[in-house]
Specification:
Layout: E1 3-7, E2 10-12, E3 18-25, E4 34-39, E5 46-51, E6 58-60, E7 68-73, E8 78-83, E9 92-98, H1 101-104, E10 115-119
Parallel strand pairs: 2-10
Antiparallel strand pairs: 1-3, 3-8, 4-5, 4-9, 5-6, 7-8, 9-10
């Protein structure tokens, strides 16, 4: 089955940076769009970013555009999210998910377990 393992989260100060990784298995990684989703306590899931199959086209939520960069390494079956200029409102559990945002927001089974990002001073 789809297996997605996020890593790289942690506690950072506002303005800091963090790089999240997502190791994928159980499917042909290079055949799927990939997505990052986040969810803060008591809030619904929020789409963050997605990337096309080849990594040529990327999209970002307005809230993170210019600060976050999504990328993928198909040879390593790994998805990344480089997060710079972090803000307290970025605090959330971050999930990678198989597929584009249009499908993954309603298909929790395609998400990983998540990695916690906390931005606080």
């Amino acid at each position: 089955q789809v297996q997605l393992v996020e890593s790289g989260g942690g506690l950072v100060q506002p303005g800091g940076s963090l790089r999240l990784s997502c190791a994928a298995s159980g499917f042909t990684f290079s055949h799927y769009y990939m997505t990052w989703v986040r969810q803060a306590p008591g809030k619904g899931p929020e789409w963050v970013s997605d990337i096309d199959i080849g990594g040529d086209t990327t999209r970002y939520a307005d809230s993170v555009k210019g600060r976050f960069t999504i990328s993928r390494d198909n040879a390593k079956n790994t998805l990344y999210l480089q997060m710079n200029s972090l803000k307290p409102e970025d605090t959330a559990l971050y999930y990678c998910a198989r597929g584009a945002v249009t499908v993954v927001l309603t298909h929790r089974e395609y998400w990983g377990q998540g990695t916690q990002v906390t931005v606080s001073s």
